[in-house]
Amino acid sequence: QVQLVVSGGVLVQPGGSLRLSCAASGTVIAFDFMGWYRQVPDKGRELVAGISSGGNTNYADSVKGRFTISRDNAKGMLYLKVNSLKPEETAVYCCKAFHKQQIYWGQGTKVTVPS
Predict the structure, then answer these.
(1) Cα gap 50→100, rounded to integer Å
(2) 3-state secondary structure of 88
(3) Are 90 and 111 in contact (CB under 8 A)?
(4) CB 14, CB 86: distance < 8 Å
């Protein structure tokens, strides 16, 4: 009923930039909270950036000043603008949303930053 589809994962050179997108469809579009997470091998899943339905944002300390999260509730879209990428930020990036205590996950997309 509710699905999140992520796109935008690509190979990016160190210092490069990209934008990830998460498209929501189904019953719930204006989620209470949406966020981007990343999973690195041998490390836990990390919350990179989050945004509330009202537009309040929060970021992991490691990405502050370089990443920007935004959403378009009317279109059911979530975005993550990523600048100055580092090799250690190679990971699978995932979209998460929750609303009224219901949690939804999108599929992961791989962002690769070579050394």
Answers:
(1) 17
(2) helix
(3) yes
(4) yes
Give, in degrees to the nearest 5, the angle at Cα 62 between 59 and 64.
45
In the beta sheet, which residues pair with residue 67? 82
CA 87 vs. chain centroid, Å, equals: 18
pLDDT in tens, 62-78: 999 999 999 998 888 99
Helices of type H across the chain? none
**Phi/psi of residue 92, nearest 5 degrees:** -90, 120
Taking Cα atoms as reference points, which of 95, 91, 90, 89 lies closest to residue 107?
95
Distances (CA, A) of 16 to 21, 39, 45, 57, 74: 17, 20, 23, 23, 30
Looking at the DSSP bridge assignments, the partners of residue 102 are 99
Residue whose pair of structure tokens reads 């699905």 in the numeric block: 3
CB of 91 closer than 8 Å to CB of 82? no
- CA 82 to chain CA centroid, Å, is 10
Q: What is the pLDDT of residues 46-62, one digit of tens each?
A: 999 999 999 999 999 99
